[in-house]
Amino acid sequence: MTVTDDVAGSWAALSRWFLDLPQKMVGAAVDQARASQTLGLGLMSYVADFMTPFWISLTAFVATEREKVHQFPSHQTILDYLELLQFNHQIAQTGLQSSLEALADHGRRVMAEAQEAWVNTVAGQGGEGLDEFMARQARLAETLVYAYPQAIRAIRSEYGFHFDRPDYEQVAETDRFVLWQVLPQSQGVEVNPEGKPVVIIPPYVLGANILAFLPGENKSYVHAFANQGIPTYVRIMKDIATTPAVQTMTGEDEVLDTRDLCQQVRERHGRQVTLNGFCQGGFVAVLDVLTGELDGLVDALITCVAPMDGTRSLSLVEYLQHLPPRFRDLGYAVKRLPSGNQVVDGKVMSWVYKLKSMDREAPLYTFIRDLRMIQGLGGEEVKISKTAAAINHWLIYDRGDLPESITKLSFDSYTVPVTRDGDLPVKLFGRRMNFKRIADQGLKWLICVAEADDLVDQASALAPLDFVDAEVSVFPKGHGAIATSWSLPSSECALHTRFGEDQYRGPVRFQLDLQSG
Which of 134-138, 279-283, 329-333: highest mean pLDDT? Predict the structure, then answer.
C-alpha cells in the first residue's frame, strides 16, 4: 500500500465521519426529545397515583372537620391547623430531600455516560455513540412508562388467588367469609385427611393475594403448606363493596365466624386447628383465641410479621406523635358507601404508610428508583421479571376498603400500649384480652418476624414474649418476604425447613412437627 493510498483512505474516513456526524446529532436530538417527553408523562403518572388518596382523604377531612370545628374553641382550631401545616411541611421536606438526592445521583450517572458517548461520537472512536446512547435512553423511558405497567397488569392471571381454578375447593361459608381449601400443586402429593389442619387468616390492609403470590412459580405461602400434604385452609373475606354484613362487621362477628369455620375444619379432620395469621391477620387471630370462643378448637398459633403492640413500632409511633392529637382520628379515613354504611378507605390507609416512609415513597424518588431498576436489567430486550411485576401488582391494586370496627381494633393497638399485666387495649364480648391466657390454655405459638421489616417493628411483633413463652423465627429481608421470597421451596430460608445459624423453624416446618408430634 502506497502513501497515496493511505492518504486517500484517511480522507475517505474523514469524509464519512463529517457526513455522518450531523445525521447522528439529529438522531440523538430526536431521541432525546422522545425520552424527555416519555419521562415527563411517566413522572406525571407517578405523581397522580400518589396524590389520588390525598383527594379521597381531603373529602373525609372536610366532612369530619365540619363537625369537629364546633367542638373546639377558635384559637385551638387555629393552633391545631398551624401544627398540622408544620407537620405537612416536615413530610414534604423529607420527600423533597430524598427526591433531590436521588435525582442528583441519577443525573451524575447519566451525564457521565452521555459525556463519554459525546466524546466517542465527536472523536469518531469506538464505543457507544451519542445517537446510540440517546436511543437507549428513549427505549428505557418507554419500557418504564409503557411496558412496565403493561407487565404489571398482565401478571394478574398468574398472581394471587384464582378460586375459579381447580387448585381450591370451597368448604364453608358465613355471611362475611368463605373458607377455601388449598389443594396441593406438587405432583404426587395428596392431602393427608388425618393431618393437622391449618386455617390461614390473611391481612386486611395488604390483601389476601400476597399469600398466593405466584403459585405457578412455586412462590406461594398457602401452597407451601398444601404441597406438604397439610390440610390447608384460607379464610377469605367477601367483597366489602357488595356485602353489607362485611361493611358492618364487628370484632365479635369476626370471632364467631372464625369459631364456626374452625369447628367445621375440626369435624373434617378430627384434630384441633392451627390458626395462622399474617400481619393484621395475626393480630386478629390472637384476639380470636384470647376471647375463649375457640377453646377446644385451636391448640396452636402461627403469627407472621403481626403487630401485637403497635405502640412499639417506633417509626409509626414517632410519625403519629408529630401529628396533632386532634387529627389522630380514624374518621379522617372513613367514607360512606351507597348502602349508607361507613367503611375505612383502603387507599387512604395505605397512603398513611407511604407518608410515614416519605423518604422512600415520594413520587420523584420512586420514579427514579424504578427507572434505575429498568436500566439495571440491561440488554436490548428488557425483560421484566414476574416477581417484580407481581410485587408491584400487589402494591398498586391490592388495597381494598376495610370494616371500620375491625380497623379500630388495630388503630387502638397503635395508640394505647399493652398494660404491664398483659392486657391489650381492646375488649371483645366485654372481656379483657390478656396474652397470659395463651399460656394458661397451653397453646403452642410460633412468632415469625422479618429483620428488615419497615412496617412492623420486631419489638411490636415480639411484645407477647413479656407475658408468655413462644418460639421465634427471624427471617431475612422485609415485611412481605416470608410470603414471597421464602415461600420458594429451594430458597435458603424455605418455610418447610430449619434455617440460619440458630436453626429457626419455618412455619410449615413448625406445622409438620406439630402434625407428627
Answer: 279-283
